[in-house]
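Backbone-to-sequence.
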């Protein structure tokens, strides 16, 4: 038993040590600071976070924009993943390269690009006016729409990759069997193919949602100060007011909000495996 444990954990002990120093210790210190006010133990920071109308509004805004981004990423990402799945292998590699290409570009650069596109004299407004869809330039920057679109562009590959991986694991023999039983293309897709890809959809949606909860740069720039998320408030409390306890309590609550969907997904997967074993 001891030999098995040593063979398993001894080679990874340096990496575990680094993770403990770089990740776990700062989180523990953050957690401790959230219970300190004026040098003594206090729950005042959590009372402010949980019962203040301002903070509740910030959390609602963060959750809403994360849900919007997740839904939009799913609506756009699934057809993209399916399109890549249907391509020949060489063409699929090229298409996948272009999907992953934005990840090689700085988030700040991509955000500034959307800021330019959304300007009153930017390409989007100029095109809408040229087509006579609108008479005056629309106010696109400093809106929830701008922040949602910019964030979706950044996280879209995070949805496409697990969804595409799930699609590639579908047994094509099942689709052939459904066709032999008289199922048309749409019926085969909706009744056979799509349900088998839901694990990838759920994984991609979870990745996008968690990533969106912690966004800072994109809503800060495209929101123009009108959209305030939890991460922005954490930075404001720490840098402008030096309220480390308030910042820590916000960060802890955001961390818990991030872990909840992960725990729920793990519980659902565990129950599914238990049912399969029972069968």
């Amino acid at each position: 038993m001891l030999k098995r444990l040593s063979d398993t954990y001894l080679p990874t002990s340096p990496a575990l040590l680094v993770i403990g120093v770089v990740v776990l210790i700062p989180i523990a210190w953050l957690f401790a600071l959230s219970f300190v006010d004026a040098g003594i133990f206090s729950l005042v920071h959590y009372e402010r976070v949980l019962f203040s109308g301002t903070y509740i509004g910030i959390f609602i805004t963060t959750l809403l924009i994360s849900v919007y981004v997740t839904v939009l990423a799913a609506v756009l990402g699934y057809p993209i993943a399916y399109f890549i799945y249907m391509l020949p292998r060489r063409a699929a590699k090229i298409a996948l390269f272009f999907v992953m290409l934005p990840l090689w570009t700085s988030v700040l650069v991509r955000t500034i690009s959307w800021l330019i596109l959304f300007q009153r004299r930017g390409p989007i407004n100029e095109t809408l006016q040229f087509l006579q869809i609108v008479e005056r330039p629309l106010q696109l920057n400093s809106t929830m729409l701008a922040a949602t679109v910019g964030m979706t562009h950044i996280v879209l590959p995070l949805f496409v990759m697990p969804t595409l991986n799930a699609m590639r694991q579908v047994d094509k023999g099942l689709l052939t069997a459904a066709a032999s039983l008289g199922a048309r293309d749409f019926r085969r897709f909706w009744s056979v193919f799509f349900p088998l890809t839901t694990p990838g959809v759920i994984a991609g949606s979870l990745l996008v949602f968690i990533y969106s909860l912690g966004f800072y740069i994109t809503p800060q720039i495209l929101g123009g100060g009108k959209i305030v998320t939890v991460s922005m408030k954490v930075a404001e409390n720490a840098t402008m007011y030096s309220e480390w306890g308030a910042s820590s309590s916000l960060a802890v609550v955001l961390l818990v909000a991030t872990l909840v969907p992960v725990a729920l997904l793990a519980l659902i997967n565990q129950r599914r495996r238990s049912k399969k074993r029972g069968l």
